[in-house]
Amino acid sequence: MRSAAFFFGVPVAIALLLLIGCGSGGSGAQAPAAAPAANQIAGAAQYIWFAAPSPDTNFPRYFRKTFTVNSVPAQSTLYVVGPYNFDVYVNGALVNHVLLGGPRLLHDRPVTVANVSSNLHQGLNAVAISASAGEAIAASLMSAGQGVEAPALLVSEGSWKASTTAAAGWEQTAFDDSSWNTAQALGGLEADWHRFQGNYDVRMYQWPGYQGLAAQLNHAQLDPVQVSALSQQSAILDFGKEISGRLKITSSASIPVTVHVNLGESLQEATPDLSFLSTVDIFVPPLATVPGPMTAYRYAQIAVDAPQSLSAVHVTSDVVFRDVPRKGTFQSSDATINTIWETSVYTAQLGLQATFWDAPKRDRNPFSGDMFVSARTTQAAFGSLPIVRDTLTELLRRVTASVNDFTSTDINNIPGYNAYWVLDLADEYQFSGDITYLRGTRDNLVQVLGVMASEVNGANLFDPALTPGATIFADWTLVQFGAKTVPDAVKITTFSYYNAFVAGARLLRALGEDALAGSYEQKAGAIRAAALSAYLDTTTGTFGTIMQTNAMAVFAGIADQNATSRIYDQVLSKPPQLPVSPYFNYFVLSAMAQAGHRVEALALMRQYWGGMVNLGATSFFEVYDPSCASATQYHSCLVALVNSFADQGSNRLFVSLAHAWSSGPAAWLHQQVLGINPLNPGFSSVMIRPDIAGLQWAKGTESTPNGTISVDIQPGGTAVVLDVPAAVDAWVSMPTPSGSANVSVNGSTIVGTLTENGARTMIHLPQGGHFVLQSM
């Protein structure tokens, strides 16, 4: 940080520390407030449209509304949000022209603001809009200056006239529109949470009173922990951690102030040339408080134009989040592992938005593959959350470039994510045991399985040719789209399909549909046999040299025990040939555990996710390569990494530094160290396999539908204290350092069954209670 400059006899940095976040009452986040109700002024306008969506400028839609003004206000401001091309007329005069053609960010919509005070007159007035390249538009004419909430003279709603054609003079006040139809009213600006996804409403901060998703979630005020002045006109704010929310800017000036803002998840990103959102100009009326866009950030570079200074500007952050109570815990002798668990849970929680999003910065949408990892972490930390089910429903709308009803296209336009939808549903049912919910989603399950079956060829392998236009995604370094071919992405998708058909068949049996379940079990068996024949290198016993491919072969159950051992020795224990994302490293950790190498898996966790922690991460990144840790600017290094395999067409720092798919360590620590895994849906029976994995001690809890399970692994790992709810039938696997099948349970000896080649002893605790177990 630069040294502080001085003005008015006070160091800029000190002055800003006093001014920024004025009225916050402290530097930490306050207790969350209840989610506010939707603003009535913002909510008065509705999105409207007419006929089918317009693909481009060749298919315009025309909208008109006449209205009477009894007394022309001193100031009037017209706000319009809409498609990527539109022209706005007031009484025949063009006041706005937008010609973008498409989004600047993923799914964002342009917002324009026009001072129309001189365009209005007493009596009859008209607003006319031509729009194309979109499917919705909204407008509000407020009787006040820019940025000021005020009663609206006019809002878009269902009484507007609309047409697909327009005669000459259609924009004039006197035009006769009686032959036009009425527009479709699509709901208020804050009525449909689908328009909070992506970056649809990222520019709606300019619309007075608009809150969007912020109206539905909880809030906490967070002040910057450090302020570094760059000049009298600019400074950099550090809020101390990654947050999802919006800046709140308060001006004490008697004239309007425009604050130029660059937000960043890293310090590097908070610069005009690299910020993902680019520079955001926030217009602040005199003595007013105005929010910025909803996104994710840690840093903000703010600036005002000379001759104004920042002395009149007060900045804080409105943290907008889903407040869910923490139910699960984890602690161990290793401070780094503890930090990784906490950071994993926080990363997953940042994804709990309208639905379970991949990230609060980019892409701000649900993805079934991402949720497979992140939902496991939320279940361990927060228990069963309705948002998981809501997201499963939403994913059937095929969240891609547009929102469509369920068709044969792939979920998220990624065939492998069909499989993850089934696996997500299987996880939800296994965790909750809610058979009523499973029955309610039966038709969706069958439909997704049918889509998957249509994409398996006569050789019983997944075939990209059967799903044209889809992206074959396995990991960022294994992406196939267009003319590009990536054989390992196809292999991994085949493995995932096998796993999902097995899980789908199990769900169908739970529903009593044995015949249909049997058909999918047969298909799964055929896929496994075909995959082994086509992809297994019998000379090495591996599936090639790519770590991701081999890890998924183990995780999905394609590889048998012998192959798993050879895969570990020849692939998983070696440095990866291609960088592995935090998302896919969850499968690597799991495969290492399945191979019996939890100590080594924990070392990988410490090195890989701990590397992000060492960079100052307070949430885990979308991608990570340890080689970027030594780069001059690690965020640029991560962007270059993604672009080298799947060019995104931008060098702006689009890589997310808070991505829910990276939260796998917390789930893995519950599954493989505490060893808590349900055997039957709803934890009616559970397997507890505590494994100290090289730690000195570890303990934690997990909330289940039948109560909380507590595991406390004592130093040395051969003594474990358990608390098991009364309704849970527990099987416990204890280490057998002496090779004995005897285990002391509350002072009494129980003879168990040796398992895992004599390395562990299995005992049965048919009733819950408090247990002190000691291997003998």
Structure notes:
With 776 residues, the chain is of the alpha+beta class. The protein contains 16 helices and 36 strands. The strands form eight sheets. Strands 15, 16, 17, 18, 19, 20, 21 and 22 form an eight-stranded antiparallel sheet that branches. Strands 23-28-29-30-36-32-33 form a seven-stranded antiparallel sheet.
Short description, anyone?
With 776 residues, the chain is of the alpha+beta class. The chain contains 16 helices and 36 strands. Mean pLDDT is 92; it is low at 1-43 and 400-408.
Distance between the termini: 59 Å
Radius of gyration: 29 Å
The largest β sheet comes out as: 8 strands, antiparallel
- The share of residues in extended strands comes to 25-35%
Tally of strands: 36
Number of helices: 16
| Helicity, as a percent range | 25-40%
Structural class: alpha+beta
Question: What order do the helices and strands come in, and which of them pair?
Answer:
Blueprint: E1 6-7, E2 10-11, H1 12-19, H2 40-44, E3 46-49, E4 61-69, E5 77-81, E6 85-90, E7 93-99, E8 111-115, E9 123-132, E10 138-142, E11 152-155, E12 161-163, E13 181-182, E14 184-188, E15 218-222, E16 226-229, E17 234-251, E18 257-264, E19 280-284, E20 289-291, E21 295-303, E22 313-321, E23 329-332, H3 335-350, H4 368-382, H5 386-395, H6 415-432, H7 435-440, H8 442-454, E24 472-475, E25 478-480, H9 487-510, H10 514-535, H11 547-556, H12 561-572, H13 582-594, H14 598-614, H15 634-645, H16 664-673, E26 676-678, E27 685-688, E28 698-704, E29 707-713, E30 719-724, E31 729-735, E32 742-745, E33 748-751, E34 753-755, E35 760-765, E36 769-775
Parallel strand pairs: 27-31
Antiparallel strand pairs: 1-2, 3-14, 4-9, 4-12, 5-8, 5-10, 6-7, 6-9, 10-11, 12-13, 15-22, 16-17, 17-20, 17-21, 17-22, 18-19, 18-21, 23-28, 24-25, 26-27, 28-29, 29-30, 30-36, 31-35, 32-33, 32-36, 34-35
